Amino acid sequence: MATVGGGLTVLLVLTKGPTWGLLGGLALAAGLAAGYWLCYQSLTQLRRELQQAHSRLHTHAKTLPDWDTTGAVGGFSAGGTDTSEGLKTEKALQALTSVFERTPDFVAQIDRHGVIGYMNPALRNAAGIPAGEAPFQRRVSGFFTPYTQEQLRREIWPALRTKGIWLGKLDLCWQDLSQMPMQGLVIAHRNQAGRVERFSAVMRDISLEVQTQHDAVRQAASLHSVAESIPAAVAVVDKEGVYQYINRSFENWLNLPRAQVIGKKGMELLGEYEFNRRWPWALRALAGEHVSYRLDYPSRERTRYMAIEYIPMQDTAGEADGFVIVAQDVSAQVHEEERLLQISEHDPMTGLSNRAGFERKMALALQEGHGPTLALLYVDLDHFKPVNDQFGHAAGDEVLKLFGKRLLNIVRPSDVVVRLGGDEFAIVLVRLHERADAQGIADKVLAAANEPFHVDGSLITVGASIGVAYGVDPVLGYQDLMARADAKLFRAKKLGRGRQVGAVAQNP
User: Fold this and answer.
1) What distance in Å separates the CA atoms of residue 250 and residue 256, rounded to the nearest whole number?
2) For the whole model, what pTM was predicted?
3) Are 324 and 311 in contact (CB under 8 A)?
């Protein structure tokens, strides 16, 4: 009888024919030999047939002689079992065992009493157990830290009892008392009665990941400490314009606690005017540009200046994801710059602008588009040299100071009075729309120069000559305006001094 199938038992009964008589020992030996030979041939034929029936069929066969009453072999019985599925399972177990033996992860099996029954080589090596030493009688608790013992009681055992599986992080402790953080998987195996018999555990060393995470946390904490302690105001704004973070200095700048700032937009916090001043720069930062600018905050005492930077942020895809604001109060720096500029661009004796200041302010006026409405008066004091000769240089210096003050009282705050050097002065009239206004200023300057100066009980009289020029040629620049005013001054002196030339069209 032969049937193909899983777990098949094959029973084969073969016989030679009529029963043999007693042939003695030789006949018995010959019969045994013949019987086993027939068995071999029959099994060979059976295996061939079974392999043809199923190419993956494997069998395990046994043969038993069939003895007759005389002790001779009258035939034999053969039995075979299909072992195909068993072999498959055995191969799978071998492959799985090979994985466990070679993996760098830790694999262990523990009975329900906590005694270790299996440890793979990676775990043995980490635990310091020689390869030939059996792990039996070692308890898993010997590898747990006090915290892990508590975690086992509070978290792991309850999960294994209710769900049959636990996945999480735990620490193992080695013989040298060093600890290793692990990512672990523990599975509870139950018998048919539902009772837990053993546990399988697979664990992976996550020391590097934990160290990286600790470093990142430490770095974030350090950066937070720095951000909170620096004098610069720092804030993080997302791509929607919502404040995500501000440091202590930013709180002080806004005069608001961060709880009232986080989650709000600039318009709510700054108001329309201040928001609109910043918005064009914010748009550039949201487009990925690193921008810097300065804002001024005038006050009764002194103008306050803030230098502001917007540093763009990007997400993992490289798209704009908001920006970082770094703002610093640079008022002291700006005021110092203004002081140094005042020194470098002003005449130390009269306090008026010097030639360097004059040229910068001319360039600024042109930059602001005032070139066509500029008027320049070149003023030269007449008969000033005799003052120095007769009254001394100190008296001459006092005359120059007094004359500079008189000029400042004549012009508007937007105009510029300059001492070019010696007894030469200049006046820049900004946004002058009528030439008659320049004539009026020139006449007042002549009157101021002709009025005697009281110096140390003496009356000192001088005069002035003035050359006036209008408008800046955009091609020739303000140097051409200066040359024209100087030429008019030369003509005024040539005509006899004490007059102005160029203020009105009919002037020669």
Assistant:
1) 9
2) 0.50
3) yes
